[in-house]
Amino acid sequence: MSAQTITTTGRIGYAQWEETAIGSTEVTPRLARASVVNTFTGGIEAADTACEYVFVYATGTTGTFTGLESVTGRLDGRAGSFTLEERGSFEEDGTVRCTFEVVPGTAVGELAGLRGSGSFVYRPGESPFPYVFAYELA
Question: Which residues on neighbouring strands pair with residue 11, listed in sequence order?
Fold first, then answer.
């Protein structure tokens, strides 16, 4: 018998963003990293997540990123923790598009065995912004 896929939605707001350059800021493409604290509401309820991103700025305002985010809280009422691997891009107008996936083997507590993926689109001035997450629990 296979696990049932459940889709949940909610919103993400960021509480803290600290970005620093990696190497020279005089060349393009350039690298940067950011330490971010987010809050998830809705299907995922988690305050003060820990997230680390690495950015590649292709231009001064466009590029791509990868990151890892540690989420501790509740997923549709079940308590536990898991880690998300995130990949995305940012556009000249400030729009951010991101897909994320649960890192296998990182879910603990009532979320042990969690598998899933999701996405969000952030548009400038929209905070918090919506996400969608489809998952299965083993």
Answer: 41, 130
Distances in whole angstroms, Cα of residue 18 to Cα of each of 35, 53, 67, 115: 5, 10, 14, 29
| Residues in CB range of 78: below 8 A, 6 or more apart | 109, 110, 111, 137
Average pLDDT over residues 4-18: 95
Residue 11 — very low, low, confident or very high, per pLDDT cuts 50/70/90? very high
Burial class (CB in 10 A: 0-12, 13-18, 19+), 78: middle
- Preceding peptide of 104 cis, ω within 30°: no
Write down the residue that tokens 């308590």 correspond to.
Answer: 79
Closest CA to 31 of 17, 43, 19: 19
Residue 1 has pLDDT above 90, yes or no: no
- Residue 6 contacts residue 37 (beta carbons within 8 Å): no
Question: pTM value?
Answer: 0.93
